[in-house]
Write a structure and sequence with these properties.
The chain has two domains: 99 residues, no CATH class; 133 residues, Heat Shock Protein 90, CATH 3.30.565.10. The chain is elongated. It is of the alpha+beta class and 313 residues long. A hairpin with a 2-residue loop joins strand 6 and strand 7. Helix 2 packs antiparallel against helix 3 and helix 6 runs antiparallel to helix 7. The strands form two sheets. Strands 5-6-7-9-8 form a five-stranded mixed β-sheet. A four-stranded antiparallel β-sheet has the order 2-1-4-3, with helices on one face.
Amino acid sequence: MDLGELGDAGTLRDRLARALGDPSLVVGYWLPGEGRYVDEAGRPVELPIAGAERAVTAIEQDGEPVAALVHDGSVLGDPRLVADVAAAARLAVANARLQAEVRSRVAEVAASRRRIVQAADTQRRGLERRLRRGAEQRLARVAELITDTGPPLEDVAAGLDAARAELREFARGVHPAALVEGGLAAALTELAERSPVPTEITAPSGRLPAAVEAAAYFVCSEALANIAKYAQASHASVRLETGEDVLVVEVADDGAGGADPAGGSGLHGLADRVEALGGRLGIDSPPGHGTRITAQLPLAEATGTGLLATEAP
């Protein structure tokens, strides 16, 4: 009896029904934890009582129920055919259970990666706030006092101003305040203004899930930093578009190209962040023709995490 490949169209019930010539066939899968049979959609399957026109063929594994076939009584009259069907169904059910277990484990790992990224972003936002509202404000008050005392302390005041500027730059690198307060478009505009390479920004003005905004921002930040260091470019562009529950981020330059994703840890870290949200990161960098970095970030999956970009700073 040929049930076809596992990748063929249709469920196990469909393939068994075709092979047996019984379109009314029902396959019930045993749920040990609930003590009942269900079909492929999870609906309860009631086994017919003894003596009914419908027959039941039980499928067991090591003495434990695995599945049950509810079929026309005349279909499985040959014991050898019953054994073949039971073996095929047993194998298919075991394979389905393994696949379900693997999918469950993969989903758990993906959810764990998302939680790690989100927890890191939350910590970064908290550290940025503490730096901005704590150390920087104290330095500002000291600078005001020093300015009031007159010229002898001008050098100290200049040093304090430099320290405050460095502190703001450090806090921005940890997590930009503009991203939390003004959104992705405002943060990218600020990023472009600091870039030594002229950069054109195209981004939606509305707010997006916080995890997506953070991932998109750091993709652009790392890409623009690499352009400034290595690309020998005269122009760069950052384009963000939303559609079909996905945010597409594209950073391009007209530089030397030939970027090697394996050459540093920055792009690896970005790929991990993007993939943790269920997205993809791609790099196209032919020598002599510039570099294009593209990230696709699902919006629906990130929205389901509960971390929204409207979180208070």
